[in-house]
Amino acid sequence: MKKSILITGGAGFIGSHVVREFVTKYPAYQIINLDALTYAGNLENLKDIENRSNYTFVKGDITDAAHIFALFNEYKPDGVIHLAAESHVDRSITDPSAFVTTNVIGTVNLLNAAKEIWKDNYQGKRFHHVSTDEVYGALGDTGLFTEDTKYDPHSPYSASKASSDHFVRAYHDTYGLPIVLTNCSNNYGPNHFPEKLIPLCIHNILNNKSLPIYGDGKYTRDWLFVIDHAKAINLVFHKGKNGDSYNVGGFNEWQNIDLVKELCKQVDEKLGRPKGTSAKLITFVKDRPGHDLRYAIDASKINKELGYKPSVTFEEGLSKTIDWFLSNQAWLDNVTSGDYQKYYDKQYS
Ligand code: NAD
Ligand code: DAU
């Protein structure tokens, strides 16, 4: 019988790349993509694979426990890869409750359903929880987050993700549920929703709008190409040690201001515009409350134990990303119509 894998949040930015990775690489798996199609979910992200025979889309909300139980009973997944979440830090500052409901309660609903359907017979079963480096809090000018770094979340988003991580480990420790976790750094790439720094700046450059840099722009993030995150999830899902966590990152730190300047330079080159055209749009704006100074991942464990290495350099990844957005302006127009403008005006006015 085909193995069945339930991927939650598969219509979102990272989830769509994970779904594609599994659908195309594992014809012997039946992949079920469960997604509520919130503002961040978009089936356009999966147009190229939607007719594959080993792919099924189910619209559903992980906060609806009864629906989740019914789905688990219907599809009897052997594995779960859980990405569905409210994912944007700024939105969590405006509306923390939605983050508790989806990220914490939604995760617990999935854990309960997996535990119930697997009925303590865990042979060949696995619950892979996809998490973030933000659970570790903020670094100063030096140091890296390892898997042993103490959790110290600051934003409502990271507090909700930390809580969900704890629940996943608690189900392992208490009920023996087979689990793995990945904590990844900032992703970038095709299909990135333009509320996040890189796609927001690309969208604004294309529309001749200012590029809002929070505070002094010296905040630092560690960036990984989204397809390399999907490959890491594939590796850990199949080869990670039961009960373990793996940090995922590319040893690729950038201060926000330098990153945006690099982005401006590359976009100008690709559009054949004079040097410095896009950089003129850079505007320093009010800082994010509780803004974490620096994130940086030590990805030695996944490298040493599972042989993981990112497949592209940052220069290649950024170039591919800009090319994708330049060739997919209809996608950008589509996701920025409707409620996006209201969000943007409220956030940046
Ligand atoms: P995203 O916001 O682009 O996508 C989230 C997806 O989840 C959307 O398709 C949305 O429709 C779906 N969803 C939201 N609430 C749901 C609900 N209640 N029920 C079912 N589906 C729901 O997020 P992303 O950036 O792709 O992040 C995916 C996961 O990876 C999240 O768990 C996030 O915490 C984690 N993560 C993200 C990054 C990053 O840089 N974006 C880095 C590390 C970890
Ligand atoms: O580190 C992993 C996390 O990366 C994920 O868990 C989150 O889901 C994901 O959204 C991302 O969080 P960040 O807050 O780091 O990403 P964002 O793109 O929102 O911001 C990146 C940096 O850029 C951060 O320091 C804030 C800053 N920023 C962001 C926006 C949207 C700006 O200066 N201006 C902006 O308009």
UniProtKB/TrEMBL annotation:
InterPro entries per record: dTDP_Gluc_deHydtase, NAD(P)-bd_dom, NAD(P)-bd_dom_sf
Q: Which NCBIfam families match?
A: dTDP_gluc_dehyt
Is NAD one of the keywords?
A: yes
Superkingdom of source: Bacteria
User: What protein does this entry describe?
Assistant: dTDP-glucose 4,6-dehydratase
So what EC number does this one have? 4.2.1.46
Describe the reaction catalysed, as an equation: dTDP-alpha-D-glucose = dTDP-4-dehydro-6-deoxy-alpha-D-glucose + H2O
Which cofactors does the annotated protein need, by name? NAD(+)
Q: Name one Pfam family in it.
A: GDP_Man_Dehyd
Q: Which UniProt keywords apply?
A: Lyase, NAD
Supply the source organism for this entry: Sphingobacterium olei
Q: Does the keyword Lyase apply?
A: yes
According to its UniProt entry, the protein's GO biological process terms are: nucleotide-sugar metabolic process
